[in-house]
Amino acid sequence: MLTKYPYLRQDFTASLVVFLVALPLCVGVAVASGVPAELGLVTGIVGGLVTGFLPGSSLQVSGPAAGLTVLVFEAVREFGLPVLGVIVLATGLIQLLMGALKLGRYFRAISVAVVEGMLAGIGLVLIAGQLYSAAGVGAPASGLAKLAGLPGLLADSAGSAEALASLGLGAGTIAVLVLWKHLPRQVRTVPGALGAVALATIVALVFSLPVATVEVQGLLESIQPPGLGAFGDLASVGLLGTIAAFVLIASAESLFSAAAVDRLHDGPRTEYDKELMAQGAGNTVCGVLGALPMTAVIVRSSANVQAGAKTKASRVMHGVWLLLFAALLPAVLAYIPLPALAGILVHAGWKLIPLRGIASMWRDHRGEALILIVTAVSIVAVNMFEGVLIGLGLAIAKTAWEASHIKLEIIDKGAGPVQAYLSGNATFLRLPKILDSLEALPQDRPVELDLSGLHHLDHACRTALENWAERHSATGTEPVRVSASGAEPVKVNTP
Fold first, then answer.
1. Contacts with 312 (C-beta within 8 Å, 6 or more apart), sequence order
2. Which percentage of the chain shows pLDDT scores above 70?
3. Which of the listed residues 190, 280, 389, 416 has the most CB atoms within 10 Å of its CB?
4. Is 174 within 8 Å of 343 (Cβ atoms)?
């Protein structure tokens, strides 16, 4: 057996570690998304047993992700739980199509600033929303309302013993997560999230704390495939926009995670188009089952690599352990306090905000840092989809502006023709600067315009240069002489 599967022992051990990491996160993401806890386990199971078998990235682990929590919660609130399956199914089918068309690699071209801004915005909204859950009260709908209501939440909680107990348990969970890496190595063999939830559960039981716990419905009872009526909402523009946001965010997060995981090991590199199809297959199955959407998750994936996994068998086995838990021990979920899960997600949301990256980016690439900040603020102020579109628009505008750099050098020796050298990219964006400089040249002197240094000359600039040269030549001086070996020639009419 070991001869046929030489890495079985390493993969078996790694699968147990990943299972213990994934279990509290699957439940926490589901509860924060406003769906039954079991649906988070279903997505984790599909991530192991379906996506785990498929080619793409051998050591990357998929499941429900904190990065999609806010978007799922908004979708369930606006369209209802039955339509969530339609959204996830459509997302999976689109991902399969994009992978078949070999579009996976192009997601690597998405601005890193936009992706990090997207995650930072999600993190801020997630933290704000889960603070309400930690206090045992409902959160406002919009991101701005969540942030604006925090002072009132703290004031109200100060006068309620139940709210204080709930907040204390959530704060204790966060403290355990932060301090876990400083504990002895023997203790750290248990994943921090699982240890924090276990301790919070024990504290809540021993002291009979008045805190809410996870509601258990049963695995089969929670699975609700979308009915035919739910597909009628596909005619809604709002629903189509939500699907587009799911596709963009789930695909980008998965493929960026794949690139990060590749840097953690020396094994086979990710095949991005196949990985996108694997994610699509998993989301298609999740959609049919009415479960949460999946992405590749860097926390589980890095735990898989660090635990010594060698092949995809580890992620498949982690799906088996999740299935066995969901089938045999679902009642255990009912003991988990909701403030503990909120604490885990507050901690996860904080890690989505790249504070060090923003500081470094601000020093070296201020424009990228501004895109990151604007994207994050837009997601908080407006919504997920429009915030990402704003970030992408800014990134495209910044790239277009930088691509239009042009240099105009004027050499005037006081006698003879004035020499003007244009180099770079002459686009309509820099046309006012070019014309202002050329029109400032002496009208009574001949001009030699050298365009050989141009890499690109667009139609607007070429037409404007022709008109300028014609006007300049009409003053009685010699016609403008143009040399344009590096760009399309500018035609000058001799007066």
1. 52, 53, 58, 59
2. 95
3. 280
4. yes
Q: Is 446 exposed, middle or buried (0-12, 13-18, 19+ CB in 10 A)?
A: middle
Higher pLDDT, 487 or 358: 358
Residue 454 host element (H or E):
strand 447-457
Of 43-57, 230-244, 280-294, 318-332, the one with minimum mean pLDDT is 230-244
- Report whether pLDDT(495) > 60: no
Return the pLDDT at 26. 93
Average pLDDT value for the chain = 86
Handedness of CA 141, 146, 149, 153 (dihedral sign): positive
Q: Please tell me the distance from the alpha carbon of residue 95 to that of residue 382, in angstroms, as a whole number.
A: 26
Question: What is the tens place of the pLDDT at every residue in 141-193?
Answer: 788 888 899 999 999 888 888 999 999 999 999 999 999 989 998 888 888 88
Rounded to whole angstroms, the Cα distance separating 302 from 282 reads: 20
> How many CB atoms sit inside 10 A of residue 264's CB?
15
CB within 8 A of 493, min separation 6: which ones?
A: 470, 473
- The pTM (predicted TM-score) of the whole model is 0.77
Find the farthest-apart pair of alpha carbons in the chain and give their distance in angstroms, rounded: 99
Closest CA to 383 of 190, 281, 245, 202: 245
Dihedral angle, C-alpha 484, 486, 487, 490, nearest 10 °:
0
- Given the structure tokens 């590199």, which residue do they identify? 269
∠ CA 320-339-18, rounded to 5°: 25
**CA contacts within 13 A on the Cβ side of 123:** 18
Contact 21, 330 (CB under 8 A): no
pLDDT confidence of residue 477? 67
Residue 203's contacts (CB-CB under 8 Å, 6 or more residues apart) are: 169, 172, 209
Phi, psi of 472 (to 5 degrees): -65, -40
**How far apart are the C-alpha atoms of 171 and 167, rounded to whole Å?**
6
